[in-house]
Design goal:
This protein is about 65% helix and about 0% strand. It has helices spanning about 1-20, 30-40, 45-50, 55-65, 70-90, 95-115.
Length: about 140
Amino acid sequence: MRYLWIAVGFISLALGTAGAVLPLLPTTPFVLLSAFCFARSSPRFHSWLINHRTFGPIIQDWNRDGAISYRAKLLATLAFALTLMLSVLFRVDMTILLIQVAVFVPSMTFIWTRPTATRPTSCDMPEPSSVSLDR
């Protein structure tokens, strides 16, 4: 069963990576699924993923606040809009357009109703005078 979780983790990570450049494929849900799978199968892969420079913040935001970054929300919206525009431009059948809209509207509603992730800033750091250097 462990190998199945690892395989699904890597497949979803591959889909999430592809989603970073393909307009119809989302990144965040696949990265979150990868973290879920790795947490059940491989502490090493799970640690690698949550500490990854690109994918780690997505997982950390979700784990901490159930949040999605504003940038991810904006990119998802732009990807959906681009997909619809290209479908119209290429005169895709109306049934396909309606299916796209039926998928996009609930997806966008979910994404935009999640809290927006906030990153710690230098303002959140303790003042140097309050940090003790004593051992």
